[in-house]
Design brief:
single chain; about 325 residues; alpha+beta; BirA Bifunctional Protein, domain 2; eight-stranded mixed β-sheet; three-stranded antiparallel β-sheet; 10 helices; globular
Length: about 325
């Protein structure tokens, strides 16, 4: 009989004792370690460098402008107003210019939305930035996922099976399961408008829409070239008019697990995007200056580690993938 979680996030009193008793959480801890090890191995083989970064920033990567997909978490740091990092993707762009090679990390991200079965307000991000464009980044992500799948089967196969995971799908991914690609326009046409949310001048794919696409096309579907106003400002323009973005979301498991995109090369394009998204430039002056001093074509991705592990373990609630549950507005000990 497979091990099952104790849903310690429902009642956090004494949860640490239940985590110590239940083998489910021992497996989660083991898989977290493997993800960190395998990620380092993958980027080491490519000559990539990791960065040790702070968890506070004055330049959040999903600012509260048009196309924002998250709510930032503001904090008072000894009297200074700042934010907990929703992502340090900007710093990875900085790292590519600093080191001259790929930059990556696995570190926590903070979001202001409440947690639910598919979303955590504190989660771990495996993020990276490389020299190149969107197609280069998509290829790297596919190689990374195959590498993770093969490594997890080899290192943790019995533990994964013991928690209800299906090793056959990991083996299939590692062996070359195909990834499909479809543009957002094509996806909207295929769905006939179902699962497409019409907003103020742009469209969004809902969670139901993600599931409908996977029902039609299978897992591992890249949805590329979203409406530019549906994504953060830093994604490069996908056409001369600036209607679309050079970005892509990868759908599998519960839905979007990986988000990727190419960045603006020039200061002028980044400023144009800030204006389009109605985001004030004050907090991003350094970001524009970096492009003026060191213009470089880069692309990057972010993978939600807990969302990936949901797929690995065939599980339906992301809150069971935290060893230490966290909820906004609650001070949880330990």
């Amino acid at each position: 009989m497979a091990h099952t979680p104790s849903r310690v996030w429902e009642n956090t009193a004494g949860f640490h004792l239940e985590v110590l008793r239940n083998p489910w959480y021992r497996t989660v801890a083991r898989l977290q370690n493997s993800i960190s090890d395998l990620t380092a191995d993958f980027w080491r083989a490519r000559g990539g460098q990791t960065l040790h970064l702070p968890v506070t920033t004055g330049s959040i990567s999903s600012p509260m402008g048009r196309g924002s997909d998250s709510t930032p978490v503001s904090v008072d740091l000894m009297g200074a107003e700042t934010y907990l990092a929703d992502s340090m993707q900007f710093m990875l762009e900085f790292g590519c210019r600093l080191s001259g090679t790929d930059s990556y990390y696995v570190m926590p991200s903070f979001r202001g939305e409440d947690a639910d079965a598919t979303h955590l307000c504190q989660f771990f991000h495996s993020e990276a930035e490389i020299s190149g464009g969107l197609d280069d980044m998509i290829q790297v992500v596919e190689e990374y996922l195959r590498f993770l799948a093969a490594g997890l089967v080899e290192r943790d196969g019995e533990a994964i099976r013991g928690c209800g995971g299906d090793l056959a799908k990991l083996t299939a991914l590692a062996a070359g399961q195909p990834f499909r690609r479809i543009t957002f326009d094509e996806a909207a046409e295929l769905l006939g408008g179902a699962g497409i949310e019409e907003l103020d001048g742009w469209r969004n794919l809902t969670r139901d829409g993600e599931r409908l696409l996977m029902d039609k096309l299978g897992e591992f579907v890249w949805v590329t070239h979203w409406d530019h106003l549906a994504v953060p400002f830093y994604q490069a323009f996908g056409d001369a008019e600036g209607r679309t973005a050079l970005n892509a979301d990868l759908l599998f498991g519960m839905g979007e697990v990986v988000g990727a995109g190419e960045r603006h090369v020039t200061r002028e394009d980044a400023q144009r995007a800030l204006d389009l998204h109605e985001v004030g430039a004050d907090a991003y002056a350094w970001y524009l200056e970096m492009r003026e001093l060191a213009p470089q074509r880069t692309a990057g991705f972010g993978m939600g580690v807990e969302r990936f592990l949901m797929w690995v373990l065939d599980h339906d609630d992301i809150r069971d993938l935290q060893l230490l549950p966290r909820r906004n507005g609650h001070n949880i000990v330990p």
